[in-house]
Amino acid sequence: MMIEVDNLSFAYSRQSKIFENFSWHVRKSEAWSIIGPSGCGKTTLLYLLAGLYEPNEGVIRIAGSTLKRPRPQTGLILQDHGLLPWATVRENARLGLKIRGFYGPDGRHAPSDAFIDTSAGNKIVDYWLKRLGINQLKDKYPSQLSGGQRQRTAISRSLMLDPDLLLLDEPFSALDAPTREDLEKLVSDLHIETGLTIIIVTHSIEESVLMGNKILALKAGTNHTPHIIENVLACRPDYRGSPDFHARCEELRSLLGRSA
What we know:
It is a single chain. This protein is 35% helix and 20% strand. Helix 7 (205-211) packs across helix 8 (243-259). It has 2 domains: 1-73 and 164-260, 3-Layer(aba) Sandwich (Rossmann fold), CATH 3.40.50.300; 81-163, Rossmann fold (3-Layer(aba) Sandwich), CATH 3.40.50.300. The protein contains 8 helices and 10 strands. By secondary structure, it is α/β, with parallel strands linked by helices. The protein is globular and about 55 Å long. A hairpin with an 8-residue loop joins strand 1 and strand 2 (19-26).
């Protein structure tokens, strides 16, 4: 089991509980989307999985180990990209490798068995910049890039660290429709090619159906039991225009309407 969330309870200070005795499991190589109304806990759950928040009660285990802090094998991609404005595309993409090189394989900033020399690191950077179609922009700064190009840079920064879990927090919501669809396809293709475990938070019904082989629907108020929708055809290139896709979108739209 890749992720085990057991009897999770969480609330922000002086607020009602978002999760109470909430249990949810994710298997290795699954692609999940998380959807629900604003304030239901989508991003909160993602940050709990990233180790940025701690449960009030319960336990989260990832790859068999209890999560107590952010783990180096988890990649996190945010809506605002998180790029350093004074660094080029190549420097931003290489940031994680630079940090790992500084601390060494200490098990906290880098996996204990991870060691990448400068030459190998440069090859990894070049590979992902080319794979993501931004190699020609490697000397540009974030201010010189489009939103899609900045997001590709953020994705490359995570992928070149060879994560076993990729968490995405509404990464495409601020992009125009063609760019969003292009990046949705990119991430879906990477999931199919690599078997990477992916969890994406989204407010878009279509995006959640397109990208999640399983969909976790959260509700407003306190979440006790996960509502899971099986969606086995997700991530396939011909899924978006199919009758099955539209039927699944309508099913999810109806469900969210009832739980609003």
